[in-house]
Amino acid sequence: MAQPDDFVSEFFQQLERVVSDWAQSLGSHTHFGGADLRNPLEGLVNYAHFPKRDEYCRQRYQGLTPQSALSHVVNLPLPHNAQGSGAPTPASQAIIARWKEMLSPLEGQPVYYAHIPRMIEYLLPFISADTRNVVLVTECNITPGMFDLPDNVTLVKFVDSGCRLYSNSFLESNFPVLCSFANTIALLDQCIKPSEFACICGCNIPAKIWATICAARGAKSVCYQHGWPAFIHAPFKNMPFDRMVTWGPGFETLWRPHNPAMEFIPGKYPYPVKQGAHNRITFFLQQPYYIATERTLEQMVDLINQCAVAYPDIIVQYRSHPDIRLDSHITKLFSDKPNIIDVSSHPLDEVYASTRVAVAHFSSTIMECIAHGCCPLVFNPSPSWNYCPDLSALGLGFISTDFASFFNLLPLALDFHVAENLKKQWFG
User: Which region holds residue 349: left if phi is over 0, alpha if psi is between -120 and 50, else beta?
Assistant: First the structure.
């Protein structure tokens, strides 16, 4: 019998289709100065509706059609009048002049953008390898000594300029935060005129805005790969960057179908790989979001418990995603198992170094762990969604879909090592 969770994958497919059709119908109402913000707008609207997933699934479980269920949770505004645009106000003119004076020494330098400290850490290998004078723009507060930034890096704190460089009545009325970011980014771009824009991951909305504005000015943008999300939702598709630097040539085969217009440059895995014992089973836990549900998390918790009982001589550890922490009532379930430990606060490379088998649903750690000498074992109980790529077919690991297949595959995973030529194909 169908369960509400059975409609999760369908929700994202239906939402992506409806939002894409809606954004296309807007025409020039997504234009902002010389740039078309349709792609960042689509990403923003998809993100805004992701929390509606469970309600959509309930509606479908109760018998509604996909179209009817989506209409209960999605309400997309349409323009009612002609788009207006005008010159910046006198107050904005004063802001523009002040920003240009402050930022003029940086004109022409490449810009790196990261919205949170974790993304700065992931960008550091690329920034450190850049011998040019560059600018790092970030929204987070950076304290002295927080990052080991090279001397050729100028740090710029991203703050709302309060400036109205361009106007768009439809976007201003319905998406004021998008307009605020777009105006500040347009001002930064006008002041610095970066020769190149660079970011990591690629699904961040401000990064998409800046890449779009750069393209309108004729400047290039590059996105550095950060993991492999496996579940490719709308913001990962048709990203507006000129090129992506991947961890290795294998990843182009995964990204290209979703981003056919991008150029792909094979790089190599940029982060340090620590040597370790590789004698533990590690569960990488994700919040019930995207393709994962509360039921998925409950199954993972049960799997940890059963794994600890089945392998009492092996440490079974778990690491929660950096954005979440498990509730205490969940962690109490592990209290009577001395071989279960929480390594959520441990550095990721240290966790990999201790791991023989890495278990996750769709986390980017599944592919990344291969670079660190671990064997990935996917646990994917999600109906109507298949983990991509097929790890078994590629000789990279294993995929289970229920408890029985997981415990059948676990002994194989504990003895499995990815061939060095395959590691080079995927991680340079």
Answer: alpha
Tens-digit pLDDT profile for residues 228-257: 999 999 999 999 999 999 999 999 999 999
Please give the order of strands across the beta sheet that includes 375-379: 340-342, 316-320, 280-285, 355-360, 375-379, 398-400
Q: What is the pLDDT of residues 124-163, one digit of tens each?
A: 999 999 999 999 999 999 887 899 999 999 999 999 999 8
- Contact between 228 and 253 (Cβ < 8 Å): no
Strands 243-246 and 316-320: unpaired
Q: Across residues 335-364, what is the average pLDDT?
A: 95
Pairing of strands 153-157, 134-138: parallel
Under 8 Å between Cβ of 173 and 83: no
**Angstrom distance (rounded) from CA 110 to CA 420:** 36
Tell me the pLDDT tens digit for each residue of 294-346.
Answer: 889 899 999 999 999 999 999 999 998 877 777 777 777 888 899 999 999 99
- Which of 181, 159, 163, 32 minimizes the C-alpha distance to 92? 163
DSSP state of 358: E
If 0-12 CB within 10 Å is exposed, 13-18 middle and 19+ buried, where does residue 174 land?
middle
Report how far residue 55's alpha carbon sits from residue 222's, in angstroms, rounded to the nearest whole number.
37
- Average pLDDT for 81-98: 75
**Burial, 43: exposed, middle or buried (Cβ in 10 Å; 0-12, 13-18, 19+)?**
buried
- Cα dihedral 383, 204, 221, 370 in deg (nearest 10): -50
Q: What are phi and psi of 374, to 5 degrees?
A: -100, 165
Exposure string of 182-196, with b = 16+ CB inside 10 Å and e = fewer, is bbbbbbbbbbbbbeb
Q: How far is CA 277 from CA 284, 354, 356, 357, in A?
A: 18, 5, 8, 12
Coil, strand or helix at 213 = helix
Taking Cα atoms as reference points, which of 110, 83, 42, 103 lies closest to residue 166? 83
Q: What is the DSSP string of 416-428?
A: ----HHHHHHHH-
Distance of alpha carbon 224 from the chain centroid: 12
Residue 303 to residue 309: CA distance in whole angstroms: 10
Alpha carbon distance 253, 250 (integer Å): 6
Indicate the SS3 state at residue 157.
strand
